[in-house]
Write a structure and sequence with these properties.
Helix content is about 30%, strand content about 25%. By secondary structure, it is α/β, with parallel strands linked by helices. It has 2 domains: about 1-150 and about 330-360, Medium-chain alcohol dehydrogenases, catalytic domain (Quinone Oxidoreductase, Chain A, domain 1, Alpha-Beta Complex), CATH 3.90.180; about 150-295, Quinone Oxidoreductase, Chain A, domain 1 (Alpha-Beta Complex). Strand 15 (about 330-335), helix 11 and strand 16 form a beta-alpha-beta unit. Helix 4 crosses helix 5 (about 180-190) and helix 4 crosses helix 10 (about 305-325). Bound molecules: NADP nicotinamide-adenine-dinucleotide phosphate. NADP nicotinamide-adenine-dinucleotide phosphate (NAP) binds near residues 201, 297 and 299.
């Protein structure tokens, strides 16, 4: 894991912030703001108002967040922000401490260590969220580790197990296996007794994914990823001709027809990401003959009730697996919030393996 230290000249960043906003005034906070749609350099550190929790909400003092592809899309102006989320502060996951309680909140006490998904606003010192969309941090995780969990593990479990019905003994094909979601999926599959096959565009990432538990890895289109992204024949061969029970597809585009061809009878394709594009031509006859099912999923725009369900799953299903050591976040690097622009450029480079965490 690579840790980038914040650069401080003279005053600490906290003190510089207090000087800027003025001691004793209504507290503000530091946040990374998308100043206009564009490249990483449109992300600027600004002083903004600290959000007040409404009834039923809490304010969390964020200690760490993490970068997601959706943040990059939002920064470029290609991801509409839900109406109830901060419009210009990106960030979808947090780990921190309860700092203030809105009216009627009884589940949490000040100082409780929490983590979870948020609709936006995580690249900031604090965020106000519904109290029941948070989960208690496992005691054995620190804030950096906990911030690397929610998007990757909740997305992977929800897609693969809750929706895809992955069970012990099944085989799941995980695309972009070195991604945050991919590294989580491999561990979840192993934890529930399923086997996984991973795809990545480099052998180096497949080698690292083997350490996490994939039974085999495939570079689509051949060793150097030069040809069209073919992998169905290899998946069939690796499964004795049967095919995979579930495909967790984080890539989309030309991976989709191949993924369908790689599925077993009654197999399920769960489309989670569109890194390779939003269009594909598929053989619909294959869906009929093999009785396949295709799901699309997204976490961010779900209604409150479903976000509360996701937090319950994090609390009651995933947290015990972190506490027992069956799951552990895969962290590529840790960078201070001030370096959010560099963090975005790094994620876009596709060089990473696992999560990029931002500290505050
Ligand atoms: N639906 C949801 O709610 C939800 C939630 C979370 C994430 N997602 C989506 O899931 C995907 C993965 O997210 P993440 O944060 O885990 O990603 P990540 O950690 O940033 O990793 C993405 C990896 O995908 C591979 N990749 C990138 N472009 C590709 C392409 N054109 N073809 C094949 N592989 C490509 C790269 O690895 P290699 O090149 O080395 O293979 C890259 O390192 C994203 O599309 C994201 O938007 C969706």
């Amino acid at each position: 894991m690579h840790v980038v230290k914040p650069q401080t000249v003279g005053l600490s960043s906290a003190l510089r912030w207090r000087v800027r906003v003025g001691l004793g005034k209504t507290p503000g906070m530091r946040a990374i703001v998308i100043t206009k749609p564009g490249g990483p350099d449109v992300l600027q550190l600004r002083d903004v108002a600290r959000p007040e929790p409404s009834p039923g909400q809490v304010r969390v003092r964020i200690r760490a967040s993490a970068v997601n592809r959706a943040d990059l899309l939002q920064r470029a102006g290609n991801y509409p922000v839900p109406a109830d989320a901060p419009q210009d502060i990106p960030g979808l996951e947090i780990a921190g401490e309860i700092e203030a309680l809105g009216a009627g909140v009884t589940e949490w006490a000040l100082g409780d260590r929490v983590f979870g998904l948020v609709g936006g606003g995580a690249y900031a010192e604090a965020v106000a969220v519904h109290a029941r969309t948070l989960a208690r941090m496992p005691a054995n995780l620190d804030f950096v580790q906990a911030a690397a969990v929610p998007e990757a593990f909740v997305t992977a479990y929800d897609a693969m197990v809750t929706q895809g019905g992955l069970a012990a003994g099944d085989v799941v094909l995980v695309h972009a296996v070195g991604s945050g979601v991919g590294t989580a999926a491999v561990q979840i599959a192993r934890a529930i007794g399923a086997r996984s096959i991973g795809t990545a565009r480099t052998q180096a990432k497949l080698g690292r994914a083997k350490e996490l538990g994939i039974m085999a890895g495939v570079v689509p289109g051949g060793q150097a990823h030069h040809g069209p992204p073919l992998f169905a024949d290899e998946v069939k061969a690796l499964t004795g001709g049967r095919g995979a029970d579930v495909v967790l597809d984080l890539v989309g585009g030309p991976y989709v027809p191949e993924s369908l061809a790689a599925l077993a009878v009654k197999g399920r394709l769960i489309l989670v990401g569109l890194l390779a594009g939003a269009r594909a031509e598929v053989d619909l006859g294959l869906l009929l003959r093999r009785r396949l099912r295709v799901f699309g999923t997204v976490m961010r725009s779900r209604p409150l009730e479903e976000k509360i369900s996701a937090a319950c799953m994090l609390d009651h299903v995933l947290s015990p697996l972190f506490a027992s050591g069956s799951l552990a976040p895969t962290i590529d690097r840790v960078m201070p919030l001030e370096q959010a622009a560099e963090a975005h450029a790094y994620v876009a480079s596709n060089e990473g393996f696992g999560k990029v965490v931002l500290t505050l």
